Amino acid sequence: MPYRAPIDDLLFAMRRAAGEAAFAPGGLYADLDAATAAATLEEAAKFAENALAPLDHVGDRDGVNFSVGTVTTAPGWREAYSLWVEGGWNALSAPPGHGGMGLPLLLAAACTEIWNAANISFALCPLLGQGAIEAMEIHASEALKSAYLPKMISGEWPATMNLTEPQAGSDLAHLRTRAERAGDGSYRLFGQKIFITYGEHDLSENIIHLVLARLPDAPAGTRGISLFLAPKFLPGPDGRPGARNDVRCVGIERKLGIHGSPTCTMSYGDTGGAIAFLVGRENEGLACMFAMMNNARLSVGLQGVGLAERATQTALAYARERRQGRGPSGDPAPIVEHPDVVRMLLTMKAQTAAARGICYLTAASLDRARRLEGAQAQAAQERAGLLTPLAKAYSTDIGCEVASLGIQIHGGMGFIEETGAAQLLRDARITPIYEGTNGIQAIDLVTRKLRLSKGAAVWREIDDMRDDIDAMAASNDALFVAMSRRAAAAVDAFERATDFLSATPDPRGPETLAGATPYLRLFALARGVTLLGAGALAARRAGDTAAQNRIVTARFFADNLAVAAEGLERAIIDGGDSVGAGLALLSSGGD
Amino acid sequence: MPYRAPIDDLLFAMRRAAGEAAFAPGGLYADLDAATAAATLEEAAKFAENALAPLDHVGDRDGVNFSVGTVTTAPGWREAYSLWVEGGWNALSAPPGHGGMGLPLLLAAACTEIWNAANISFALCPLLGQGAIEAMEIHASEALKSAYLPKMISGEWPATMNLTEPQAGSDLAHLRTRAERAGDGSYRLFGQKIFITYGEHDLSENIIHLVLARLPDAPAGTRGISLFLAPKFLPGPDGRPGARNDVRCVGIERKLGIHGSPTCTMSYGDTGGAIAFLVGRENEGLACMFAMMNNARLSVGLQGVGLAERATQTALAYARERRQGRGPSGDPAPIVEHPDVVRMLLTMKAQTAAARGICYLTAASLDRARRLEGAQAQAAQERAGLLTPLAKAYSTDIGCEVASLGIQIHGGMGFIEETGAAQLLRDARITPIYEGTNGIQAIDLVTRKLRLSKGAAVWREIDDMRDDIDAMAASNDALFVAMSRRAAAAVDAFERATDFLSATPDPRGPETLAGATPYLRLFALARGVTLLGAGALAARRAGDTAAQNRIVTARFFADNLAVAAEGLERAIIDGGDSVGAGLALLSSGGD
């Protein structure tokens, strides 16, 4: 199951997300001309295709091995990680201060898609490290930064995020891991963390744990959480890994997928306390954690896009090879000539393209928020905030749907592990769960993001969609005029649903919460159909060689997927009462 | 992960499918009064809950072992199979002639749901045997029947279905397995079959293979296929297993799910030819095979229902236990009090109930076709034919969707194999593929079933749905009147889509085929919303203790799921062109 990074599609999505002018002199990405962007993606593609993708199946089949506190990764993984660090890939998007290359997040997003398509289990290690680096950049002291950030940024010392405990999953108010002041400015940690991705492994000489814990005098709830850094090995005076810290892996999980990556239970302070250093201020760990998670949410969305892309490539290749039934000539025809198979392939292609568009738009907004100033920066930050739950939840939902369709196209072969189609679904299935379940994303969207600046963010987004619709309607091309009508119907439905949810008196009331998930999907359909339609029109005008492909994809999305919009609107506006009745029944013991 | 057979729900679905009067004296099931039906299900439930369900996880974890031609099942499976045969469960629905109990298919359907919910890998063995028994009953000679049927019906000699070959999956025209006349009325088989479920195992003293093969002088294509019976051991003069036949298992598959059941590659005739006997007439094997498969399609649909039921039970139990976030009182609340979780649980419940209703209606129609005569029997046969693709495809599609939601409700725990939620998705994922992929079901629906008696079957079904709508509309109950409007909108959309597809000039043309899958889903939504709504109304009128539950489920289906109907109608009527454009692009090498 080879993987080829679809570089043209990625560059196209980047240009669409940022606007063509952004890459010109004086534009947002004046530091990144189109040729440099393409060259970077081509190098990334080479590394992903040649070094990472071949290890994907090995990692799935062999998994990782746990034995008395040590974790051994699958054959070839250590070597690949060394090449990763040497190639400088880890430092891509980190700020220049401590060795980062400071490339735009938009380019980093495209690379993240590539790594995760090639080998999500491998890519998870740097993905989580990225969030830790971001939190350190914002919140850590200069001393802590100089001691740790250069190695974290290079990837020599990958970082982990230690949030979850058995009694506290999505809800961090109930964390029990204890931090004590040691008197010398450092702290000692005691407690157990679960589901720690790459909590222990043999890929690197050291591992840096970022850990949420509670001080003895901390207020209850989430306002009493602090963030600490606890290395596996404490750096000696020469900066090299020295004394072993009091933190160890006490077990790993047997999981549905991402077998190549260890999911660890970590124990802190079994023999006196794990030496740790405060990141940010005491009891302000939650803000630090959000810095980690916001970055990670977009990255997890990109995992969904990457897996969807790979599933689509794999299914299309199979559909061209496998012959079943008869074609128009009466001879056995490749199944890519069967309309029902084409429907599945187009569903995969269209959803992948829409999710990619949404994720890249989020990344470009984050770049704008960083690089612009004043009201422009604030608007961009709000847009990124609004789009992040969409990027995370829609992309990972369709990641699973697309991987499942990929199995279906393979028929019986899809159920056989050697084919690789099944692994993509098993791997994808975690993405709607971690970094905030997709339900939590939807709730974040309707309760917080919808009310950013009194709703200005969502209304600006609707205006932007209307601009895309107007462009299609004004095209004088019957195909695009028809697409503009479908897109308008979807955006109208989204606007009515937005009106409805904005008007509910209690922004956290059951009516709002019951409609959260269909609202997020409706938003994605409206945003997807406008992005793809306007993109296809631009491609046709530019004489893009892939224009026909983009038109087919956009048209399929409009005529077959976006048509679900009004049904979702009904579920949001009229469906909440039945959810309320169900809640009353089920929570009182009825079944 | 215990399983409790929801006996009240099953009895309710049986009564709704057959009509209350059917169980009264003089009714269709006069031989089966309500008390007997309930007692049978209770016994079946006991066996499934105590003997089968506990082996489900063991089978998944340990799988089956292959070594030089022999296959060993997981610990405890042999003993359970002996109990299965001793309990007489295998003989439930077989006709009385050769030891069958001749119970109605409707009751057998409820039992099939129970077995598969408890342990699908185990239940697969008798499930496939059932189809073989049916084919033998209809097509085999009396001599063959008396030699094999009693042991096949008792389950002592379970049967397999040998259709697939590497080059011929869904398309049997290209079968190459060779049959030669031996001159004594018997035949010799040569060739290889793949994906043979329970092709070899240690559960029983003998295995009976039904094999599709081609005679040397057979016409090309599907008109040249014959069906043969080839036992693993040839019965000796005493009727006991005697000489070993020339058929062996040469390998098993490593699969995504159903690990407890062996999926075998079978080799026939490596040392002179496997002795085989003709079932039916030469070159008429396809008709015999349809007899096997029709039965199996409904049964696979019931696998979907069973897995969906189990996933729902498991998720509901977890949602009542797991606490996250705060409830109205400010204390940690079980997640069953979160509206977004309730939306998922109701989606699971409602789809499971709808799929069950459709499957049981199919089974009841088959009973009517068998037990009535003349036009009534023919109409019932056509109805069963119309509903079978729906029963198979909708139930297995939602089986996967519901199992996936079950994982989501478990959060991170859902991804951990020990929890059991992930196994349900892995097991369910084969059901949309085998016994005719769901795409093939949809194509069968739109190309053949839609035109049964010039469309009379589908229009009778629409009339039946309208009767349900009228009952709700006439209820003088605002809730049901509102439900009748939603149901009418769904049925109207289905009717328009039916008009559209019935009017296409070429019943196998690309327009029809492109709309097949959304049409099947639309049919299921229309049939589901009317079945659930009318059922809930009947439950309320009867003062059923579960009436409130059924109303909540029906209402949720109407307000949140059936609202997708018009979007599907649009995809069917307007979406085909974009599929055609995609076919042209993808089959010419574009990507």
TrEMBL record, chains A, B:
EC number, UniProt record: 1.3.99.41
Acyl-CoA dehydrogenase/oxidase C-terminal domain: residues covered: 283-445
Coiled-coil intervals, chain numbering: none
Domain Acyl-CoA oxidase/dehydrogenase middle span(s) in chain numbering: 161-268
GO molecular function: flavin adenine dinucleotide binding; oxidoreductase activity, acting on the CH-CH group of donors
Catalytic activity: 3-(methylsulfanyl)propanoyl-CoA + oxidized [electron-transfer flavoprotein] + H(+) = 3-(methylsulfanyl)acryloyl-CoA + reduced [electron-transfer flavoprotein]
Top-level taxon in the UniProt lineage: Bacteria
Domain Acetyl-CoA dehydrogenase-like C-terminal: 468-579
Acyl-CoA dehydrogenase/oxidase N-terminal domain span: 39-156
Claim: Ribonucleoprotein is one of the keywords in the record: no
Keyword terms, alphabetized: FAD, Flavoprotein, Oxidoreductase
Cofactor(s) the protein requires to work: FAD
A Pfam family: Acyl-CoA_dh_M
Function statement: Involved in the assimilation of dimethylsulphoniopropionate (DMSP), an important compound in the fixation of carbon in marine phytoplankton, by mediating the conversion of 3-(methylthio)propanoyl-CoA (MMPA-CoA) to 3-(methylthio)acryloyl-CoA (MTA-CoA).
Recorded family membership: Belongs to the acyl-CoA dehydrogenase family.
Protein name: 3-methylmercaptopropionyl-CoA dehydrogenase
Organism annotation: Methylosinus sporium
Lineage of the species this protein comes from: Bacteria, Pseudomonadati, Pseudomonadota, Alphaproteobacteria, Hyphomicrobiales
